[in-house]
Amino acid sequence: MANKEASVAEMTEKFRTSNAVLLTEYRGLTVAQLKSLRQSISEHATYAVVKNTLTKIAANAAGITSFDDDLVGPSAIAFVHGDTVAVAKSLRDFAKANPLLVVKNGYFDGNPITAEEVSKLADLESREVLLAKFAGAAKASLFGAAYLFNAPLAKAVRTVEALREKQASEL
Questions:
Q1: What is the pLDDT of residues 54-66, one digit of tens each?
Q2: For residue 102, which of 82, 81, 76 has the smallest C-alpha distance?
Q3: Are residues 101 and 58 located together in one domain of the fold?
């Protein structure tokens, strides 16, 4: 009994401290396949096979009720502590290669999300790529602004030089 209470308390804490939580069904996957999946997301998440009843109690204790109806069959949860998009991509890619893995739903940014929304997250570019694109756009804007501010000055210098040359040729 104390062991179950400790498990629920530990899981409740994971629900509370995770960036996102993604619920999956792994029926039919081998131990080797689950190990491979765990390794593919280990940088950003922990993947745990869970007992449905204890998970429901822990999720409810953390204020999450969106899993209640989907906690049937063999369930496993990805507790995301890093990049949610990277984990969603890894789960999607693994599910393409291993159709027995089913993403049921999730909880992200304080809100429940559907399996379709998890798929949309997977379609986003990674945080690093988005930041790089933003930096490139900002750099291009700065170069454009610098050119814009320099253009009148350069034109004025050329005009003054042309006037000086004209005066020198008239003398």
A1: 999 999 999 999 8
A2: 76
A3: yes
Domain coverage including residue 114: 2-124
Number of domains in the chain: 2
For residue range 4-32, list pLDDT tens digits in order. 888 899 999 999 999 999 999 999 999 99
pLDDT of amino acid 120: 86
Return the closest-CA partner of residue 90 out of 126, 131, 129, 49: 126
Query: Based on the domain organization, do 114 and 139 belong to the same domain?
Result: no
The runs of H, that is alpha helices, within 2-126 are: 2-17, 31-41, 52-61, 84-97, 115-123
Whole-prediction pTM value?
A: 0.70
Sequence-distant (≥ 6) Cβ neighbours of residue 66 within 8 angstroms: 105, 107, 112
Q: Does residue 145 share a domain with residue 87?
A: no
Q: Which residues of 53-69 are buried (b: 16+ CB within 10 A; e: fewer)?
A: ebbbbbbeebebebbee
Are residues 118 and 140 located together in one domain of the fold? no
- Residues written for the chain: 171
Side chain identity at residue 55, one-letter code: T
Give the pLDDT of residue 136: 73
